[in-house]
Design goal:
4-stranded mixed beta sheet, binds (2S)-sulfonatepropionyl-CoA, 264 residues
Length: 264
């Protein structure tokens, strides 16, 4: 089986730290179903081994941390592209529900759904090369409700609107200034800085940390949305993923040309 991940298990036992390295460079670590399946299996193995912290990263010096959802796997048959069982949704829930902290160590560009994956992690430590782009508007995709909640919990609503409406990358320096990431660390200190934080966390009480992580997950997900409000949003999202613009966005990506959105 092609492996997209390098699970640095040696480190894993030494200090209860698990490291997952995205390793599918030819597709820029796009979060395909196969890659996500490996990631989730690795998280499960680490939970069984009772690791106390996980570092999620790309290969050193990566120009692209992850290019986001695998566009080739976005459905064109009228199904919701980001429904409950979509691999990206599974991965975000796996990170949020994982019983110990997940640190995203970021170098290079983070695109689309990968931006949500990074922001769903508990701590984000980035190199100056890191950029973050929220891209649904670039492809004509209707992002889903819990995904927007992840973004809303990561930065001021005005920043999220700018990132969502422009789909332009935000640099690591600005991201740190806005509090969207925890630390901006020079490329050559990134690994040592991340490792040090991982060791500090691994030396603290795993039970106390586990309950605080779950408390914060429940509290930040506690959004007062009525059933009617949810249904209205789902109806609006359906109009988008049934639209010509949704198909045009994906087709333009595949044909490597700028999309021409008609608003229909
Ligand atoms: O042409 P080949 O076969 O070599 O394949 C190319 C790209 O097609 C492929 N690739 C992807 N395939 C599927 N899904 C992707 N997201 C994806 N990104 C890239 O990888 C090969 C190398 O890509 P290339 O030549 O463009 O690399 P580059 O180094 O020149 O540029 C790297 C990027 C990341 C700037 C560029 O690949 C790019 O802009 N990728 C798409 C980023 C993006 O818009 N991601 C959003 C995906 S959709 C998503 O996450 C959510 C559904 S949403 O949109 O709602 O947020």
């Amino acid at each position: 089986m092609t492996s997209y991940l390098i699970m640095a298990d040696a480190k894993w036992y030494e200090a209860s730290i698990g490291t997952l390295t995205l390793n599918n460079p030819h597709k820029r670590n796009a979060l395909s179903e196969a890659l996500v399946r490996e990631l989730i299996a690795s998280f499960e193995a680490m939970q069984a081994a009772e690791v106390r912290v996980v570092v999620l990263r790309a290969a050193s010096g990566a120009k692209v941390w992850s290019a986001g959802h695998d566009v080739d796997e976005l459905p064109l048959d009228g199904r919701d592209p980001l429904g409950w069982d979509d691999p990206l949704r599974h991965l975000v829930r796996t990170i949020e529900n994982f019983p110990c902290p997940v640190i995203a160590m970021v170098e290079g560009g983070v695109w689309g759904g990968a931006c949500e994956v990074v922001l769903a992690c508990d701590v984000v430590i980035a190199a100056p090369s890191a950029t973050f782009a929220v891209t649904p508007a670039r492809l004509g995709v209707p992002y889903n409700v819990s995904g927007m909640n992840t973004f809303m919990n990561a930065a001021n609503i005005r920043i999220i609107k700018e990132m969502a409406f422009t789909a332009q990358p935000v640099g690591a320096e600005r991201a740190e200034r806005m509090g969207m990431i925890n630390h901006l660390v020079g490329g050559d200190e990134l690994l040592a800085f991340t490792d040090n934080m991982a060791r500090v966390i691994a030396g603290n009480s795993p039970l106390s940390i586990r309950v605080m992580k779950e408390q914060l997950r429940v509290l930040t997900g506690a959004n007062p949305m009525t059933p009617r409000g949810f249904e209205r949003i789902q109806g609006l999202r359906r109009i988008v993923y049934d639209s010509a613009d949704y198909r045009e966005g994906i087709l333009a990506f595949k044909e490597k040309r700028p999309p021409k959105f008609s608003g229909r």
